[in-house]
Amino acid sequence: MTPAAGSGVNPPLAVGVDVSSVERVRALLRRHPEFAVKYFTAGEVEYCRGRPERLAARWAAKEAVRKVFGSMGWPIPLYSRIAVVRLPGGAPRALVGGEPVEGLAIALTHDAGLGIAVAALSGRGPQSRWLWGRLPEDLELPSRPSDGHKGTFGTVVVVAGSPAFPGAAVLCSLGALRGGAGKVKALVAGPETGSLPPEVIRVPVAASGSALGPEALGQAQLALRSAQAVVCGPGLGQDGPVAGLLEGLFAAAGAAAWSLVLDADALNVCSAWPEVRRRIPRGSVLTPHPLEAARLAGMELSEVESDRQGFSARMAEQMGVVLVLKGAGTVVAAPDGRTWTDDHHTSVLATGGTGDVLAGLIGSLLAQGLEPYQAARTGVFLHGEAGTRLGFLRGRAGILASEVAGALVEVQEAVRRQQEATAARAERP
Question: How many domains does the chain have?
């Protein structure tokens, strides 16, 4: 096993063992000569020609690899898609679909009339190109042309944070930055956002006491005009000035070219002020956790949780928004009836600030050109994958929201590489 950077030595995550009878393989070849060419590659057939013991060992290796995939909950590959190749020096390696699987090692031998193989999957490092969750076939990522510049990848404006919750603006901005936005601008009213990353462009505005209020929008007009997405809500507080801020923002959204993400306190204020709720722009992305969703709908929490997908679909249609109902099995619903449930389940994300990161990430994907439903769906998948990866590599407790943001870099690259590999295989004759 090889150590992953900064995390010590990783024990195997899964082990598969199999034994195959050489005599049984020899008999199969006599009765069904097509057996070898049906389940083995041309290279394997040539290497094993006249040596059924070699074929038996490779059949055992295919079975061992399938057991590893099955124990991880991954789709189990067909025998014909698993191949054993020899590295320089003779060491074996398993390919699945023509590609090596990061962290997968095999050993095989034949003796006493048996082919024997062991496959082991070690912890995959942070640079891994492979994913822990099942990648939806139609998941969209923004294009990243090599000749692009910061204007190519859009601008996100973050309206978040207050003296009581200064970290919310930081985490939301990190989500937008790590999501690939070209520029991130944050409204800043005082020293409480002094820990913003240096890459964030500060937009100085006034505050109404301890909260951002409607006057901040007038001072941020230039920033708002440059935006492709605005993320509003994390850590804003629920004071009266925030309601005025939201009313002004909603009014501006009607004539603006930017998309809007509403999270946390923005949703709580909308729940408390029905006249503000009614003005939420259609096409916005709302990212409530179940209690916030229940308040917004005027329902009991139990009613939301008893039918998460049905509730989300109804709310999305009624409000004309994309609804992201967070939690284990996050649901994304569009006003046109599209729904999708993420299959990541990890306690890593059950910590303060991870929702702020998700809101910033979705804003980043909107700024890069994805339509609201796809931006929400992609953001939820990437967020869940980042948490799952960190849980496997480092542990299920103690991961920080800022670390989830940092993991988004490798996760996006893993998605791109897997999509590229799938496309390349589809193009092969």
Answer: 2
- Cβ(216)–Cβ(187) under 8 Å? yes
378 touches 139 (CB < 8 A): yes
- Domain residues for the domain of 317 are 155-423
pTM above 0.85, yes or no: no
- 3-state DSSP helix/strand/coil percent for the chain, to nearest 5? 45, 20, 35
What's the CA gap between 209 and 207, in Å, rounded? 6
Residues making up the chain, counted from first to last? 429
d(CA 246, CA 241) in angstroms, rounded, equals 9
Same domain, 324 and 247: yes
What CATH number is attached to the domain comprising 284? 3.40.1190.20
Burial-class residue 185 by CB neighbours within 10 Å (0-12, 13-18, 19+).
buried
Give the C-alpha distances (Å, rounded to integers) separating 396 from 227, 328, 361: 36, 14, 22
3-class secondary-structure state, position 247: helix
- My answer on whether 199 and 113 are in the same domain is no
pLDDT tens figures, 270-313: 999 999 999 999 999 999 999 999 999 999 999 999 999 999 99
CA distance 201 to 185: 5
Is residue 142 within 8 Å of residue 365, measured between CB atoms? yes
